[in-house]
Amino acid sequence: MSQKILFPILTIVGASLFISYLYPLTTKDSIEEPRPLTIRPDTVLNKTPEKPNPAQSRIQIVFALDATGSMSGLIGAAKEKIWSIAGSLAQADPAPVIEIGLLFYRDKGDVFVTRKVALSSDIDDVYGKLMQIAAEGGGDEPESVNQALYEAVTKFSWDTSYNTYKTVFLVGDRPPHMDYQDDIKYPVSCGLAKQKDIVLNTILMGNDSKAARIWREIALCNQGSYAQVGMDANDIAVNTPYDAAIADLSDKLDDTRIYYGDASEKSASFKKVANSKMITGAAKANVKAQRAEYNSTKAGKAAYYGQQELLESYRDKSVNLETIKEEELPDVMKNMTAAQRKVFVEQKIMERDSLNRELIRFTKQRQEFIEKDLKSRKSAEVDSSFTNRIYKSIQKQTEKKNIHLKADAKY
Hints:
Number of helices: 16
Strand content: 5-15%
Structural class: alpha/beta
CATH superfamily of the largest domain: von Willebrand factor, type A domain
Radius of gyration: 23 Å
Number of strands: 6
CATH class of the largest domain: Alpha Beta
Strand order of the largest sheet: 3-2-1-4-5-6
Helix content: 40-55%
Largest sheet: 6 strands, mixed
Distance between the termini: 51 Å
CATH topology of the largest domain: Rossmann fold
CATH architecture of the largest domain: 3-Layer(aba) Sandwich
Oligomer: single chain
């Protein structure tokens, strides 16, 4: 539109154009690589949008987990299931941005009272920090639940957009200490969660009656859910004949990531790749298969490759090989001619695409195997599993944010 036409109507549509800039209408193709917003509407306009764009929906989950000695089953389940939970959420269409945070809690006198892992769409990083936690400490029955819940509600970077689904899953087996004078008690945190539009879901491990009463009270304060599971977390793990092949493909895909940029940017990217290899290297084949499947989804792909990954940037035409400074090129490409660089990148993309086609084929076979296995089990066993309890709660609650999770939970 010419300036002569735009100027007379600027006062009428200016705000709309600005909001459109912040929230562009996303086509099916562009959803392939959702990117977290860098500018929030509340920081620019000081209000939430009246008509949220469902293509830019976001899911934020903080798991507040009891990490005392009795919770080895819970921590083990979390390590096994974080990828399947993320994969279950990635089934929404349009694909949401998925961010997971962790808060581990024990009690005063233990090695730590709380330990936080920030909300992040980089599930590799979250997983790596989860793997560093073991269930230890405890002893007396009450735990620092009050402090854990307060910090879960107030100490994370919760998005304020209207169409963001925010939830805390409080998981443990014992009630809070109500005798700590410096604690902010759970009813106050419940009120804060309601103000922030954070749904509080609770999962009780075991059958402590006092904890059950408080867990129900917390869940009721903002339309959350309450569930009770056994101390082993009622975990279901399905090992398939395809896990090893998918894990191998996952390792090969990790090796295809190539980054460009200045020295500090490339260093950060190399560190990201090295960390992901280190933390997943010792993982079980079925966990690596879950990770590979999630990272191949629309929701997981952007975080998996991160910023300035050369092959994906070239594919979506966000970078021109001829304009990249030589010092910002990957080392392997620095001595190539312009024509050689183009051939090199296009060959690497073909290799990646071939690996992804194989991954899709094996993943489909894996899911068919899992579906058959689950059908052979008692429905009550599947319905009460740790993964399903979490997924079903989210599936119901996200409808209010126009995020539709119509498929079954992933395993």
